[in-house]
TrEMBL record:
Amino acids binding NADP(+): G167, R168, S169, I233
Protein species of origin: Allosphingosinicella ginsenosidimutans
Domain Tetrahydrofolate dehydrogenase/cyclohydrolase NAD(P)-binding: 141-285
Name recorded for this polypeptide: Bifunctional protein FolD
Any Pfam family the entry gives: THF_DHG_CYH
Organism lineage string: Bacteria, Pseudomonadati, Pseudomonadota, Alphaproteobacteria, Sphingomonadales
Length: 294
């Protein structure tokens, strides 16, 4: 018997994308132009190419303008920062996303901090990270914000709940922990040096797994009824020369204990692009002096 309800991230993301698309015509009427998202890809990393292509398609499907910039792998940091400066100055561009990872000759932090914080729809700029850390409004990284939307959609009010975030990266774990703290959860952040992770997870009403460790979190680690958000995307060997995608949670055992759980694929993954579109719509409204839709 399966006790856990499966959280349908794909359906939730489709709803968010529809709401964004529905708000675009009103913006176009008021601003005289569509919201615009510029995506910059340096080099030919296959996974990054797939992400950039799907971001571009989703942007156009939402009725927004998509500006794609593909630069050769040998691009220098100065050349990339020069492009970012031109996008900062371009009034048709509301959001700027530089696809990571960048080639080794380029310092990612220097490039991200060259982006105008008002166009930083990925929420990676230190000004936006600082705003989140101090509880001020700003742009929040898309993946953790998508996780928060799924949690609130499922649980409603989060105040007072015990949350464990597994992972402390700047793009997932840390912003996730800060979002949950801003919702008045009691937050524990676990990482590779954490002792006795199972007993920490056992106390949690909310578990967000973002460690990049295939099927690490087992069902018998969970408090019965816990809500489990699985951020991990891991490709593992499925035998006979095939591979398959799994999360950081052992879904088969966790679904027996959890109150609700996101699958992989079809959970957190689809939310990331939907939130990117939402952040771009918000950026466009703020830049045009309009009030963003709720
Ligand atoms: P990072 O590799 O940057 O960070 C992983 C974090 O997990 C680190 O803080 C690390 O600790 C911690 N960790 C590693 N091993 C363990 C362990 N055994 N126990 C506890 N903590 C551990 O990864 P990201 O944050 O970028 O991504 C995490 C996962 O989410 C990946 O699988 C990635 O593919 C996926 N992802 C999915 C997205 C989506 O759209 N669904 C978007 C972004 C990422 P320490 O700091 O000590 O090294």
């Amino acid at each position: 018997t399966v006790s856990g309800a499966i959280i349908d991230g794909k359906a939730f993301a489709a709803g968010l994308r529809e709401r964004v698309a529905a708000a675009v015509p009103t913006f176009v009427e008021a601003a005289g132009r569509p919201p615009g998202l510029a995506v910059v890809l340096v080099g030919e990393d296959p996974a990054s190419q797939v992400y950039v292509r799907s971001k571009g398609k989703a942007t156009i499907a939402a009725g927004m303008a998509s500006f794609e910039h593909r630069l050769p792998v040998e691009t220098s940091q100065a050349e990339l920062i020069d492009l970012v400066a031109r996008l900062n100055a371009d009034d048709a561009v509301d959001g700027i996303l530089v696809q990571l990872p960048l080639p080794p000759q380029i310092d990612e932090g220097a490039v991200i901090d060259a982006i105008d914080p008002a166009k930083d729809v990925d929420g990676f700029h230190i000004a936006n990270a600082g705003r989140l850390a101090t509880g001020l409004p700003g742009f929040v990284p898309c993946t953790p914000l998508g996780c928060l939307m799924l949690l609130k959609g499922r649980l409603g009010e989060l105040a007072g709940l015990d949350a464990v975030v597994i992972g402390r990266s700047n793009i997932v774990g840390k912003p996730m922990a800060r979002l949950l703290l801003n919702e008045s959860c009691t937050v524990t952040v676990a990482h590779s040096r954490t002792r006795d992770l199972p007993s920490l997870v056992r106390r949690a009403d909310i578990v967000v797994a973002a460690a990049g460790r295939p099927e690490m979190v087992k069902g018998d680690w969970l408090k019965p009824g816990a809500t489990v958000i699985d951020v991990g995307i891991n490709r593992i060997d499925a035998g006979e020369g095939k591979t398959r995608l799994v999360g950081d949670v052992d879904f088969a055992s966790a679904v027996e204990v959890a109150g609700a759980i996101t699958p992989v694929p079809g959970g957190v993954g689809p939310m990331t692009i939907a939130v990117l579109l939402r952040n771009t719509l918000v950026a466009a409204h703020i830049r045009a002096g309009l009030v963003p839709p709720a």
